[in-house]
Amino acid sequence: MRYSGCGILLMLSLFLGVAADAADNLIVPGLRCGAFILGKTTEKELSAIPKAKGIDFQFSRDGILNSVVVTISEYATDRNVRVGAIEKDIIRVYGQGKSGNIDLTKGETVIGKVGDKVLFYPGIQFVFAKQRVWAIILVRK
User: Fold this and answer.
1) What pLDDT shows up at residue 138?
2) Which helix (H) or strand (E) is 7 found in, with range?
3) pLDDT per residue over 42-63, tens digit each?
4) What is the DSSP string of 9-63?
5) Backbone angles phi, psi at 85, to 5 degrees
6) In 3-state terms, what secondary structure has residue 77?
7) In this predicted structure, what is the pLDDT of residue 47?
8) CA separation for the pair 134, 86 (Å, rounded)
9) Which residue, of 24, 32, 72, 129, is most buried by count of CB atoms within 10 Å of its CB?
């Protein structure tokens, strides 16, 4: 039976508690959050590990990782932006980006907004609450 090197590394680091280096907490827009790779990591793989506090995963209908929501400051983007950053820090390193909101829905009814404001960039979104990044959303490009 053959296993991919990446899958074995992921499982070893998660099950054996191998100390994470800085790259393990790296958010790369449109690609990965730590060892979790958009479009490759499966729901089945993640169901075998304890749920991490401050990280939420969304999957496609076929069980492939589609997006990651990070609400803890232990993770940073490849441009060193973390939860808690202010808007001018985001704009300084990513540029102006598109500003808007994400609707919170129940069924097909909009019942509110997620955060106060969202800055959208290819592969990544920054959700603000009280003028600070409250969540970083990693999405596929």
Assistant:
1) 97
2) helix 5-15
3) 999 988 888 888 999 999 999 9
4) HHHHHHHS-PPP-GGGGEEETTTEETTEETTTSBHHHHHTSPPPTTEEEEE-TTS
5) -65, 160
6) strand
7) 86
8) 10
9) 32
Contact 37, 31 (CB under 8 A): yes
- pLDDT value at residue 7: 43
DSSP, residue by residue, 78-132: TT--BTT-BHHHHHHHH-S-EEEEEEEEETTEEEEEEEEEEEEETTEEEEEETTE
Among left, alpha and beta (phi > 0; psi -120 to 50; other), residue 29 is beta
- Rg (alpha carbons) of the chain, rounded to whole number: 16
Structure tokens, 64 = 């492939």
Task: Compute the average pLDDT of residues 29-47.
Answer: 94
Gap between the Cα atoms of 114 and 103, Å rounded:
6
* Cβ–Cβ < 8 Å for 42, 51: no
